[in-house]
Write a structure and sequence with these properties.
alpha/beta, nine-stranded mixed beta sheet, four-stranded antiparallel beta sheet, 16 helices
Amino acid sequence: MSPTQLTSHWHSLNRTTVRALQGQKLHRYLRDCVLPFSKHYQRVFAEAGLKADDIRSVDDLAKIPFTSKHDLLPTPDNPRKSLEFVLVPDAAVLAKRPSTILRALSRGKARVKEELDREWRPIFMTATTGRSTESVAFLYTQHDIAHLGLGSGRIAELGGRTREDRMLNMFPFAPHLAFWYMYYAGIEKNIFCLSTGGGKVMGTEGNLRAIQKIRPQVITGMPTFIYHVLSEAVNEGLRLEGITCVLLGGEKVAEGTRRKLSELCAQLGSPNVQVVATYGFTEAKLAWAECPFTPGLTPPGYHLFPDLGIFEVIDPETGAVQPDGVGGEIVYTPLEQRGTVVMRYRTGDHIENGLTYEPCPYCGKRMPRLVGRISRVSDFRSMRFQKVKGTILDFNELEHALDDVRGVGSWQIELRKANDDPLELDEIHLHVTRISDESDDTLRTRLSNMLHSHFEVRPNTIQFHSAEKMRELQKVGVALKEQKVVDNRPKSTVAPHQPPAAPMSAPARATTMKPEAVRT
């Protein structure tokens, strides 16, 4: 099977075939696109003494130095540093290639010139959210935009979507991957899709009216915002029948989140909804989804596109590639991108159970999958609860634990300093919306005991708020991403986060659940 055939048969190939075809494609991509036209990787390969001919297999990727977000950030000497990652073709080089000459002979020079311009000229951009570092722009050409549609269309196919479906895209309107990914999903699969722009554009009421008018089978957006919209619909006594899938992105999705969204949909007249999580990041210009599965069963992992990119899972301490099924940090290398390109990109995201090529237990397809919970290094925050030593508290696990608590709707964690004194100890204040009939005191005690037993910390205060007040605290419809964790400590006193010291396959509690630091 040729590499070009992989696009239509990617879900039926075994591990050996996938990796062999990826190696061929990687070599050509480096030889024809990256090394001739990327200023950054020309320098990286020269310093490492590498050439394109040295990279002919997926295993050869280990020869290439990693790229991280730090490499993209501007410096005083180079304020436009990210532009060094943009592929800038030399017209003379392209003109001399046999493939270009043959195309010109058969199609005419003017047409080929237009085709090359559409393939290489940046015309669009998305950007990182800039929550942990300065925002970085990623440029797209028409070639990249076509692959936005291809990738998002595959997510639609995976979910069994058809032209008869209607989608409501409630991701915030911004140069943000999630919004445009869903926008192009509708275009690629010829599915009606209304993109509302989220809360900042139409607000909660506007999105509710849109759901009532178009009666979508699929609603997609940030988990927190969708929860607020559906909660408001329940409060207003609305009927939103016909919803079959809630597709989530931009935030972690705990089992409790799935349960709450499913229960809200059932109250609104849409029982048995599939709640599906996606994983994506700006630097990949792609996102991937879980195979829809029966609620209550184990999520099957994120189904990947091996013809569009290569995933590695590495030991975050040594950089060594982990065997299949072993957790570690996710590293991504594209195989088709133009515009801004990053190779062997360290995402800072950790996948619990690593990479597998085994058939999906739900759909049976053989595409590689990332399996288990994904957590972000930026969600480890350093805190000092004692005079002598600090604590590393993993907010990935903390968020999952709070989302899983029955009787709790939305919530927010606020980090402060005692007496607002930068030299004092750190404090955790928990803000909660109660959705059960139990008393505040009972729920407060249950929450405090859960956090102490699982994380060895107790909140300094647990405050209960109305749904309206919680929307205000979380900045629903105001911020690009709703604020579930707010760090109000003086920035100069916040110690930098450190990644877990133990192997990623070790139990989370053993590595992160002591009272000495926190991550979000």
